[in-house]
Amino acid sequence: MNADESEFKSLEYYLSLRYPVVFYPESKGYTAVIKELRGCTSVGETLLEAIENIEGARELWIETAFELGDEIPLPATEIECSGSLLLQIPKSLHKDLADIAEREGVSIEEFILAVLSKAV
Questions:
Q1: Would you say 42 and 59 are in contact if contact means Cβ atoms under 8 Å apart?
Q2: Structural domains present in the chain
């Protein structure tokens, strides 16, 4: 998107965008990161709290950038899913998957999807 196109987008438009979130399990809770919004990070003692906190951080990040006239990056991809999967895995495997996904520049969900697609 060029600068002229971004001028016509409202704050509500940017707030409605969905960004991938990466969750890192910590010794006492979770860290949540929206990599496409540089510096947009939050924590929570539970996964639900981390989800709620990163949502607030995302809104504040976008509102601040909008008010300052800073560029607000659009999500690289928005994956629409017809279902969901809740899967508990060992912490060491989760960390390994998150590390590889970060090196590849994708969300952990995108990385796991790619690995599963190759395996099937």
A1: no
A2: 1-78 (3.30.160.250), 81-120 (1.10.1220)
